[in-house]
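Methods, example record. To illustrate the input and output format used throughout this study, we show the complete record for NADH-ubiquinone oxidoreductase chain 4. The sequence lines were provided to the predictor; the line carrying structure tokens was produced by it.
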Amino acid sequence: MLITFLLSIPTISILFICTRMYCKTDLSGPYAQVRSTNLSYLDWMGIDGLSLYFFLLTTIIMPISILSNSKSISTNLKLLFATLILLETLLLIVFLVLDMLLYYIFFESILPPLFILIGSFGSINRVRASFYLFLYTLLGSLYLLLSIVKTSSLTGVTDLDVLYKLNIQYSTQIFLFCGIFIAFAVKTPVMFLNNWMGAFSNTIQGIEGSIALGLGHGFVSSGLFICTGGVLYDRSSTRLITHYRGMAQVMPLFCIIFFILCLGNCGAPLSFNFVGEFLSLYGTFERLPLLGVLASTSIIFSAAYTINMYNRIAFAGSYSKFFKVNLSDLNKREFYILLTLVLFTLILGIYPAVVLDGLHYSVTTILYSYV
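The corresponding predicted structure is encoded as:
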């Protein structure tokens, strides 16, 4: 898994070099595409400032997920690694495809590996959970397939760059949007939150903010999952908050890192989530101030329940009576894994231009190139 991250950077570089030097290039659209009879097998692949960062995020998170479970999973390791490699490969292809139909195929092909992972390596009720995930998301994605089929019947193509240049009737666009939105709302259950509103604002700041918030969420939520499922659960075999209190007395290092990740989840300043929250709200206020006010309330509620959860776990009186022995603090493996996620969150929060500069060109191209 670590090799995929190291290979991802030269892979992207090679893609752009091949695009510019060895084939006819179409850079007028939002994607750098390969257009050549000699390299026709790459016609359906490309990368831009939007997918690039999610591509890299995948290669970062997957090795971390392996390392975080290296001690808790000791059986069927061949199946585990084979499934994870397949899952990562499919995820990377999802961020590279330039055809809507191929996107749907690879996007849905992620479900079988997830089904195997949850059903084979999950905890309580894992088989039931795997079936629910598979059926629920598959049914939701049928709306996406319906929109793709309708688009193909109207235009005769599913190539994204060609579709960007077509003029489709507005009422038809609304119909297609509803199908696509339902599918992604099921896949990423974050309806009525800032990143959706930022994207719907159809402004540069709103779209950039929603993407930045998605990237920041990838680091912060991964860290929180490791804190709860990879640290606390592995030590206590329970996820009930009522069983935890006073963790700061016995796990001070864990509580410090957990607190930083909780602040990132709240969108506190100096975190990359704050950059995404701010830009999303800015774009929403610019388009519809009343909706921006409503979206701003999510920051208050998010901070309230996150800090309340942290307070109940880290403090809330004396050490919990449910544990007969003290829980050990973070070991070196856990510390460096969580520190990596914290550093990404803070560094990108302090200097977000590393990401925003790349996003700006692609977002501007999408919004204004084909007006």
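Annotations derived from this record:
The first strand starts at residue 24 and ends at 26.
Residues 1-82 form one domain.
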